[in-house]
Specification:
alpha/beta; 5-stranded parallel β-sheet
Length: 198
């Protein structure tokens, strides 16, 4: 099968061409954290702030991806791994088109995030730890998921009956139990500027 695949990457416009046109350096920000930690909210607000500053940016969010390209996947360990693998490949495509992507996925284990890192590449993968304690996330419970997990209606829920492994060396940690949304977004914006400015 592999003998019949002949990629033409070298004959296409290159990432540098696209970055020059967009006047930005593309990067992949990988937001990880418990459900309710603030990943999606921060990604949405950072996207708007970057767009208003003249950058071309795209959010890839867990629920949106599972409603579309990954709607055939469940929540087994194998399906969770495949979910992240596909997302990482999509993010890599965006990366090579010069786009900055904000990826908002629990991605609960270090191994699953390492897989995404390996697909995207050392120089372009930025692990962003959106950190809030479990009790804070559970108190927010914006989707009612913790309540369902506690009632046994959801099995394998991260933080309840499935572990979450916090990043050991994230590019940046955002403590949403201590900082306001505005402060969290501004800290990320300031962190990112030197990395994406052309």
């Amino acid at each position: 099968m592999a003998d019949n695949i002949h990629p033409i990457y070298d004959r296409l416009l290159q990432r540098e061409d696209r970055e020059q046109r967009l006047n930005q350096r593309s990067r992949v920000l990988w937001f990880t954290g418990l459900s309710g930690s603030g990943k999606s909210t921060i990604a949405q607000h950072l996207e708007k702030k970057l767009f208003q500053a003249g950058y071309f940016v795209q959010v890839l969010d867990g629920d949106n991806i599972r409603d579309g390209i990954n709607n055939n996947l469940g929540f087994s360990e194998e399906d969770r791994t495949e979910n992240i693998r596909r997302i990482a490949e999509i993010a890599k495509l965006y990366l090579h088109t010069g786009v900055i992507t904000l990826n908002s996925f629990i991605s609960p284990t270090r191994a699953i995030r390492q897989m995404a890192h390996d697909i995207i590449g050392e120089n372009d993968f930025l692990e962003i730890f959106i950190n809030a304690p479990l009790e804070v996330c559970e108190a927010r419970d914006v989707k009612g998921l913790y309540q369902k997990a506690r009632a046994g209606q959801i099995k394998g829920f991260t933080g309840i009956d499935s572990p979450y492994e916090a990043p050991e060396h994230p590019a940046i940690e955002i403590k949403t139990d201590q900082w306001s949304l505005e402060e969290s977004v501004q800290r990320l914006f300031d962190f990112l500027m030197p990395l994406i400015r052309y």
